[in-house]
């Protein structure tokens, strides 16, 4: 039977069918050939080329399986490294991107039967960090490239060197300020008015280049010369004081301790993370995947795993569950109860809940532990505090 003509309806239909992914059961990994239907796959299995490939594979089947397994592992890890880096990602997302390439190695030709077995194998071999959540298996690539490690070490050394340079600069500025204050105290003098004993006496000023101003009188007027010199110095100092008075007064009054406290407050406001779980806090289960038995139930966090996962104990039934932080939310108690700050600059501090602002979805607490004991903190969001067990 002759082939269909170019751009005929049948030829176009065949081109459309041949694009994209086909069914895995009609793919031959040995011949790397994809068939569109069961009849085509049956004809391929009966072909001479396929029979030759089977004879080659039957001589050493383990060698072919090891080859396909190694290719699958290398391609999968290369995609994980280039596409996601060292981020924590669901294994099924990576696998779907991997199989989107038409010429990929199929998993049924490797030593792993399922994606879960392959994920567990990656964790046992130390190639990735794996953890199990109610949403499935999550993986995180471990970058052991010597070039990457060398680059990280170089960045750490540079950061340390920058800190050392900043400390040296701060010490130098402090020394200069101290010397300036000492010099200013030494140069302070009392200014007096110019009193001329005899009106006939002539006062002359001799201004020499590179030398200080000298005052001389035509007769015995040494006292008069000293008074004139003091008057000139006083005028210069008044001019400097007037020039410096244009600067804001707040900068003069602000001490180094005030600046350090402002920097600490700014650091506390900006130091937020994307994880908030802490042991011994009460949380509420918000996921419906576990059924109505656990939905909206309160539990106590017993252990935190990898910052994002926690083992909780349900208060009503006493059952222990392993849940991701996305399936939990914080619990706001009544005023007067103890709470813990879970995020921000006051993370880890315990306090007493004073009031609840329902309009701004925030609370006000008083810290009662640590170095900040007694400090009153306002406008903390609901999600940053939770009731203590």
TrEMBL record:
InterPro entries for this protein: C2H2-Znf_KIN17 (IPR056767), DNA/RNA-bd_Kin17_WH-like_dom (IPR019447), KIN17-like (IPR037321), KIN17_WH-like_sf (IPR038254), KN17_SH3 (IPR041330), KOW (IPR005824), KOW_KIN17 (IPR041995), Rib_uL2_dom2 (IPR014722)
Location of this chain's protein in the cell: Cytoplasm; Nucleus
Amino-acid biosynthesis is among the record's keywords: no
DNA/RNA-binding protein Kin17 WH-like domain location: 52-178
Annotated keywords: Coiled coil, Cytoplasm, DNA damage, DNA recombination, DNA repair, DNA replication, DNA-binding, Metal-binding, Methylation, mRNA processing, Nucleus, RNA-binding, Stress response, Zinc, Zinc-finger
Coiled coil start-end: 149-201
Xref: Pfam families: C2H2-zf_KIN17, KN17_SH3, SH3_KIN17_C, WH_KIN17
Region (Disordered), start-end ranges: 236-258
Main location: cytoplasm
CC terms in the record's Gene Ontology section: cytoplasm; nucleus
CDD domains: KOW_KIN17 (cd13155)
Domain KOW: 332-359
GO biological process: DNA recombination; DNA repair; DNA replication; mRNA processing
GO terms, molecular function: double-stranded DNA binding; RNA binding; zinc ion binding
Domain of life: Eukaryota
The keyword Glycosyltransferase appears for this protein: no
Function per UniProt: Involved in DNA replication and the cellular response to DNA damage. May participate in DNA replication factories and create a bridge between DNA replication and repair mediated by high molecular weight complexes. May play a role in illegitimate recombination and regulation of gene expression. May participate in mRNA processing. Binds, in vitro, to double-stranded DNA. Also shown to bind preferentially to curved DNA in vitro and in vivo. Binds via its C-terminal domain to RNA in vitro.
Family: Belongs to the KIN17 family.
Quaternary organization: Associated with DNA polymerase alpha, RFC1 and cyclin A, in multiprotein DNA replication complexes. Also associates with replication origins at the G1/S phase boundary and throughout the S phase in vivo.
Protein's name in the database: DNA/RNA-binding protein KIN17
